[in-house]
Each structure stands twice: as structure tokens, then as C-alpha cells.
Amino acid sequence: MTMTQFRLRRGAAAGFTATALLASVAACGGQSGPAALPAASGGATTKAASASPSSSSKATAAVKQALAAYRSAFADWASVEAISSKADYQNPRLADHLTGAALSYVTGAVYVNTNVKGGVTHGQPVLLHPTAGQVIPANDPTQVVVNDCVQTDSWLLYTTDGHLYNKVPGGREKTQALVVESSGTWKVSQLVVQIVGTC
């Protein structure tokens, strides 16, 4: 991954390609190919409806926790990147809701934006439609795929004297995340953020 793929604009893939994310989900018991990532929560709802009441409540709780972790990961990212300090990329807050490839990507993005480029982010991303796609396993999930459209025109990189960096506006960016549970904690482990105009 080159530095130009980091958040100046964020570009094609944040830590993982869409194909690799699909393959990862398929390897853990999902379907193979594009159908492995439903566009909305219908797949999870259908599976839960055919399961026992206890399985259904476990799936519902898992989806709720996964969506909360996904939202918190973006909130952490925006907060850390908004502090004009070259050490921000080492902020332990980033690991609260991110792990693996997703943590590596966001850490790298913050490093490039604040340390290499000397910029600071203003505003917050708007998570327009975060919904659960595939849940694995269906009866007691430990992995949830989140599908979303993130609006970034109110979350932009500026120079320290207050000018828009590279005069690059934001927009709507199709986003997918794999959120995993480990020892009762849900974190985003893989993140795919596409270019502006993809949703």
C-alpha cells in the first residue's frame, strides 16, 4: 500500500481489499463470491427468524454490539486525527475499537496526515446507513459484516493555517467492515473504504 492511498483522499481500500474481505468471510463459513456480503441486514434477519429464540437474541445482541464498535471506531479515528500533534498516530484510543489490518490502516492514515503532511482534520464523518450484512455463525455470531455509506464532506483535512488540504472535497464513500468478537469485545478488524461517489 502506498501512502497516497491514505486519507488524502482515502482511496480504494482501507487495510484490506473488497475481494480479500469477501474471501475472509467465505473462509469462515459464509458463501463464496459477491453474494457473501448482503447489502442490508436482510440476511441476518432471515437467519435469526429461523433460529431458536435464544439464538435469535444472541444474533440480535451481536449485531448491536458490532454496529456500536463500528461507529465508535470512526469516532475514535476522527477524534485522534483532529488533534494537531505528530504523535497522534500512536494514540492508544485507536486500539479501543480497531484491530488487525483495520488498526494498521487507520494508524498509518493518521501518521501520514499529521506527521508527514502536517495536516489536521476538522469535522466528523457521517455514517449514513450502517447495517449488518452477513453474521457468522448465524446462531451465535462472532463476526459481523457491516455495510455503510460514509459521507466525508464534513470531515476534511486542512493545513495548520486553516486551508483545505489539496482543495480535495469529500463525498459519499461506500464502506464495508468486518467486525469480530474476541473475549467479549467487538472490534473492526478489516475495513474497506472506497472512493467518493461509490454510494
Give the gist of this structure.
This protein has four helices and seven strands. It has helices at residues 18-27, 42-50, 53-81, 100-116; strands at 120-123, 126-127, 131-136, 143-151, 155-158, 172-182, 185-196.
List strands and helices in order, with pairings.
Blueprint: H1 18-27, H2 42-50, H3 53-81, H4 100-116, E1 120-123, E2 126-127, E3 131-136, E4 143-151, E5 155-158, E6 172-182, E7 185-196
Antiparallel strand pairs: 1-5, 2-4, 3-4, 4-6, 6-7
Verbal overview:
33% of the residues lie in helices and 24% in strands. The strands form 2 sheets. Strands 2, 3, 4, 6 and 7 form a 5-stranded antiparallel β-sheet that branches. Strands 1-5 form a two-stranded antiparallel ribbon. Mean pLDDT is 78; it is low at 1-19 and 28-50. It has 199 residues and is of the alpha+beta class. Helix 2 runs antiparallel to helix 3 (53-81).
